[in-house]
């Protein structure tokens, strides 16, 4: 059988491994967290990401992919030349650093929020005024789920935010007056074949994705998103799968918010919509297996289950029994201990038509804190 190495052992690695099995692919995951063993249906290399023996084991796989973008570049340096790493170091250098990402997106012809690069004290002066007086300061590296970001409305707030974030390299983005947020996955084989996922509409709460919805009735936005995704995939030499997050402006134009070099939380709904899942698509794209699009045949939605502490400090639990009893639901758990704000699982919902989906989604949301 073929083997696929994965850098990382979180829920994305879990779901990639689950999708790989029926394709006849064995997964080897490098993940230092010993707790990950319970969630991975894979050979678990429980060592640091830069461990030479662990990396040597990955180098024996047919290909290596990743489930998070903050992989140490030393690990990639070791692997490159020994095994195909998809996506590779070049694409990762763009997507793991917000300033380079925005520059790379613009070079590929994609629109982004207006931004200023903040790397030294002297970059602060005048930056906010140039962006219309309000913005979001984001660390260039390591942020996720809204961590490492501060909204600012004055120069004093900007200075305080930069201090608070540790005076590390940042980008200051102008506030985008978006009407909604959408995302789209694109896969590309080493030989240049392209395939796309569904255009998904996303709602965030406190910087964390809450719900994703796919109804299929979004032809214009989907065509635009595909065109941008194709241009970026080709400009950045994508091999494997990546996901673009977009802001939709009032006139319908899409700006790229950020790019994840992998499957994405908003694509989890493809697990249960009746077609190929984003996870199977990533496995196929990385290993060069025949590739097809992964738009679900049915309207589908997803609600994240995020850790919420009650007033007494105890975990607030979703009403699992009622969720199970709602038609068309499927529960997915990540085998993670409860922590406030941590993604612990998600529930997918499938319905015969968009209207039924929306009404059942409202019911489902009431059952999840
Ligand atoms: P993720 O978990 O998606 O990686 P992240 O920490 O990288 O999150 P972003 O995607 O940059 O964060 O921002 C989180 C959310 O904050 C966005 O989905 C959007 O709702 C809001 N947001 C971010 N940047 C802007 C902006 N420039 N203008 C308006 N809203 C924004
Ligand atoms: Mg991000
Ligand atoms: Mg994001």
From TrEMBL:
Detail which positions bind ATP: 98, 138, 143-149, 173-176, 181, 204, 257-258
| Cleavable signal peptide | none
A Pfam family hit: RS_preATP-grasp-like
Recorded superkingdom: Bacteria
Q: Which Gene Ontology BP terms does the record give?
A: 'de novo' IMP biosynthetic process
According to the entry, every stretch annotated as the ATP-grasp domain falls at 102-287
Annotated EC: 6.3.4.18
| Reactions that this protein is recorded to catalyse | 5-amino-1-(5-phospho-beta-D-ribosyl)imidazole + hydrogencarbonate + ATP = 5-carboxyamino-1-(5-phospho-D-ribosyl)imidazole + ADP + phosphate + 2 H(+)
Keyword set for this entry?
A: ATP-binding, Ligase, Lyase, Nucleotide-binding, Purine biosynthesis
PROSITE patterns in alphabetical order:
ATP_GRASP (PS50975)
**What are the protein's GO molecular function terms?**
5-(carboxyamino)imidazole ribonucleotide synthase activity; ATP binding; metal ion binding; phosphoribosylaminoimidazole carboxylase activity
GO cellular component terms, A-Z = cytosol
Q: Which pathway is this protein assigned to?
A: Purine metabolism; IMP biosynthesis via de novo pathway; 5-amino-1-(5-phospho-D-ribosyl)imidazole-4-carboxylate from 5-amino-1-(5-phospho-D-ribosyl)imidazole (N5-CAIR route): step 1/2
Quaternary state and partners of this protein? Answer: Homodimer.
What does the UniProt function comment say about this protein? Catalyzes the ATP-dependent conversion of 5-aminoimidazole ribonucleotide (AIR) and HCO(3)(-) to N5-carboxyaminoimidazole ribonucleotide (N5-CAIR).
The record's similarity note reads: Belongs to the PurK/PurT family.
Q: What is this protein called?
A: N5-carboxyaminoimidazole ribonucleotide synthase
Q: Which organism is it from?
A: Deinococcus radiophilus
Gene that encodes the chain:
purK
């Amino acid at each position: 059988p073929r083997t696929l190495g994965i850098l990382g052992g979180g829920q994305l690695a879990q779901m990639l491994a689950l999708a790989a099995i029926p394709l006849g692919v064995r997964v080897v995951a490098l993940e230092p967290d010993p707790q990950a063993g319970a969630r991975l249906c894979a050979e678990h290399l429980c060592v640091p990401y830069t461990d030479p023996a662990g990396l040597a084991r990955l180098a024996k796989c047919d290909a290596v992919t990743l489930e998070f973008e903050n992989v140490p570049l030393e690990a990639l340096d070791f692997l490159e030349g020994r095994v195909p790493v998809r996506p590779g170091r070049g694409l990762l250098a763009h997507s793991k650093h917000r300033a380079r990402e925005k520059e790379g997106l613009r070079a590929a012809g994609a629109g982004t929020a207006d931004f200023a690069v903040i790397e030294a004290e002297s970059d602060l002066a005048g930056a906010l005024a140039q962006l219309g007086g309000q913005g979001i300061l984001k660390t260039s590296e390591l942020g996720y789920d809204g961590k490492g970001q501060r909204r600012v409305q004055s120069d004093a707030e900007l200075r305080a935010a930069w201090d608070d974030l540790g005076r590390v390299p940042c980008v200051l983005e102008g506030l985008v007056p978006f009407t909604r947020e959408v995302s789209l996955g694109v896969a590309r084989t080493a030989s240049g074949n392209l395939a796309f996922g569904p255009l998904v509409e996303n709602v965030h709460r406190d910087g964390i994705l809450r719900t994703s919805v796919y109804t299929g009735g979004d032809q214009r936005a989907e065509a635009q998103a595909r065109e941008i995704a194709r241009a970026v995939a080709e400009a950045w030499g994508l091999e494997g799968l990546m996901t673009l997050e977009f802001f939709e402006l009032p006139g319908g134009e899409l700006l790229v918010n950020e790019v994840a070099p992998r499957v994405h939380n908003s694509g989890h709904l493809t697990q249960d919509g009746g077609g190929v899942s984003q996870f199977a698509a990533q496995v196929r794209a990385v290993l060069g297996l025949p590739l097809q699009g992964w738009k679900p045949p049915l309207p589908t939605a997803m609600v994240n289950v995020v850790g919420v502490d009650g007033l007494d400090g105890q975990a607030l639990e979703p009403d699992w029994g009622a969720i199970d009893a709602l038609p068309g639901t499927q529960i997915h758990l990540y085998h993670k201990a409860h922590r406030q704000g941590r993604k612990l699982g998600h529930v997918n919902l499938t319905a015969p038509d968009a209207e039924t989906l929306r009404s059942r989604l409202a019911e489902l949301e009431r059952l999840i804190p």
